[in-house]
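Input/output pair, single chain:
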Amino acid sequence: MARPKTDDPEVRANILAAAEELFAARGFAGTSIRDIAQKAGVTGAMLHYYFGNKETLYTTLLEKAVAGIRSLIAETAASPKPAQERLTEFIEADADYILKHANLTRIVFREMLAGGTELVKIFQKYRVNNYAMLRDIMTEGAERKELRQMDIELAPISLMGMLMIFQVFRPVISLALNKPVYDEAFIKRVAAHTANLFLNGAQIQASAVVRPKRTTKKATTSAAVSENQLKPKTLKKTARKVKP
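Output:
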């Protein structure tokens, strides 16, 4: 196959799709240029023309994953709505993105398990990274009393992890819940559950707690009076039985 004179967007997309599937299934080390080229239906020379080498292809996919989440956070940060509404909308969009891009999530997770060197390089390119943007939204919400006090440094990490776990543990979750496919209804259910748990917590609200009825002072006093009224009669009856 001759090298093209100009880039073909379809060929580029096919190469990326093939690499995404293979990197997700086998990891970076377990995937070769030949494997990707064969799956994409191109030659090794064609693949090198579009991406140069395997490393560039790999980082392109990582950047795609990071950029997808970043755009959602940036949109949330720009919204004038209260923090709870903004975070709820972000959770809904993030759940939809993560759970519909299984391969990208697996590639990111594999990279983190391998040390995350390439991900760190990508984050260092941004003046403000994804974590910092999400942290700033939560800080602003806490300062405005729209969010309760929490560990602002850890909260963004916890939120991202709550959503990612549904993709990382997908085989186990699918088995446990009998959900071989994450359909639209289930994705919305995950988003609603995550928003509720993160924003409201698992603790019962004080207003919803049913407390046992306390005995009123009046009732206690009445009971004491009744008891005292009975005592003299009992003593009198007992005294009659005693002979001198």
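The domain at 57-203 is CATH 1.10.357.10 (Tetracycline Repressor; domain 2). The chain has two domains: 1-52, 57-203.
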